[in-house]
Amino acid sequence: MADDHYSSAASAPSPAAAAEAAAVVGSSVIPIVNKLQDIFSQLGSSSTIDLPQVAVVGSQSSGKSSVLEALVGRDFLPRGSDICTRRPLVLQLVHQPRRPADAERDEWGEFLHHPGRRFYEFPDIRREIQAETDREAGGNKGVSDRQIRLKIYSPNVLNITLVDLPGITKVPVGDQPTDIEARIRTMILSYIKHKTCIILAVSPANADLANSDALQMARQADPDGSRTIGVITKLDIMDRGTDARNFLLGNVIPLRLGYVGVVNRSQQDINSDVSVKQALAREESFFRTHPAYNGLAKHCGIPQLAKKLNQILVQHIRTILPGLKARISSQLTAIAKEHAFYGDPVESKAGQGAKLLNILAKYCDAFSSMVEGKNEDISTIELSGGARIHYIFQSIFVKSLEGVDPCEDVTDEDIRMAIQNATGPRSALFVPEVPFEVLVRRQISRLLDPSLQCADFIYEELVKMSHRCLCNELQQFPILRRSMDEVIGKFLRDGLKPAQDMIAHIIEMEADYINTSHPSFIGGSKAVEQAQQQVRAARLPATVVRRDGVDADRPQASEKTQKARALLGRTTGVNGVITDQIQAICC
């Protein structure tokens, strides 16, 4: 069936004739897309709209440059044995009606980075491409993803927009990094992955077409082959007895948009100054006379490729144009709302000063309202502002203090050792004050970390409050917003250190003076009184007391024993430690 489709062979028309015959095709939609591409390219990465385009993909020396030059009909691309395309070249071909013979030349090129300047000499276009490439990517084979945008006006071209991408290379040369192949593949994929992109996969016929890098990349981005056009170059230098007929018919790797075979100029032709026009005539003769391709001649050659690209691109644009229009309208509406929110610009210095004072006054009021809980935008999800600060003090800080055990890490052995060290070479009958103060100071210092943590929590909440204040009003002044954040952040940071120092000083003051007169403090007299009460309470249930106060069940203790017991109760009530001397008296 494919053979029948190509059965009516005829000589291919020249590029000029094909251009004149199809000049009206795409004369309205393609220029509109070209203008949008120029605008979006100046926006950089901020644009989120993918425009329809044709991306040219192929390995190094696959013949991409020759195909593009044949489509234009002029020599204008850099040439060389190494990698030549080192930056994406967006090539917009614009059909220009033929001018009278005495009019200004009707073929020229324009670069987006040189607006309004026309390049009538195509060697000058080549030199400008090379210079612009070296400016961005360096002069030693470096590669960059920054685009070069070139428009070529000519009566010999159809309205087509193509993106010539760097060829896939395996071995780095010059200043290229070791992972140059991975980088180029990533760059290519960033273009062809979009559904709006038509993939022009260029593969040389004198290599293994089944393992073509271009077709592999195209299949990765377009698995079903619905937006890929295969271009097979160098058909004239295939091994004798072989041909690419089955590939052109889509019998090996099917593509919905089909294949086109072309014959490029060889390097010897270029060195011999064989013109593109002469090469096209020789290409037409090759397909017409070759036994494997003479039945496919109508669908082979550069003129047919140009016509096919033009028709596919126009149809592709018309298909996605409604969705594209809807996305642009949606973004225009959003931008218009944002623009209206910013309000009218303030031009005069006096007006700018008044505006600044007004914003600062509103900021102060908003911050105070947030602390006092009077702000209009009250959150129902989480605590914020003054409520959050109150929660930090009353819940987090109080719980952290309650979690501090005053007797933790203080054992009876620590107390006994401190008492013995405080008595020196003497034996003491009473508990000295020095070990008590030493141990208490050590426990008081444990209150420092929870207190400093509380200060950090308050600081973090104040910083969050400063970011939330007037966030809507300050959107139109991003530089002022950043400056205010820096100044207020510095002010809060400068206040945090004195607060931490004050907390440390308060803890030190509490540790320097132990207030033993506090009602909650249990001193020596209170300890003895409590100990005596505990002794009496322990004796009452098991003791029968006579009217004269003498225990009837036990023998009377001597006066010495009674004094020892009184001393023992006094000592034990103070610190719960029984010294060796008192134990000896009691024995």
Automatic annotation (TrEMBL):
Task: Keyword check for GTP-binding, yes or no.
Answer: yes
GO cellular component terms attached to this protein's record: cytoplasm; membrane; microtubule
Q: Which PROSITE patterns match?
A: G_DYNAMIN_1, G_DYNAMIN_2
Q: Which GO terms describe its molecular function?
A: GTP binding; GTPase activity; microtubule binding
**Entries under InterPro entries matching the protein:** Dynamin, Dynamin_GTPase, Dynamin_GTPase_CS, Dynamin_N, Dynamin_stalk, G_DYNAMIN_dom, P-loop_NTPase
Keywords for the protein's UniProt record, in alphabetical order: GTP-binding, Nucleotide-binding
Q: Does the keyword tRNA processing apply?
A: no
Q: Which residues form a coiled coil?
A: none
Pfam entry (one): Dynamin_M
Q: What SUPFAM superfamilies would the database entry show?
A: P-loop containing nucleoside triphosphate hydrolases
* Residue ranges annotated for the Dynamin-type G domain, each copy included: 48-322
Give the protein family: Belongs to the TRAFAC class dynamin-like GTPase superfamily. Dynamin/Fzo/YdjA family.
Protein name (database record): Dynamin-type G domain-containing protein
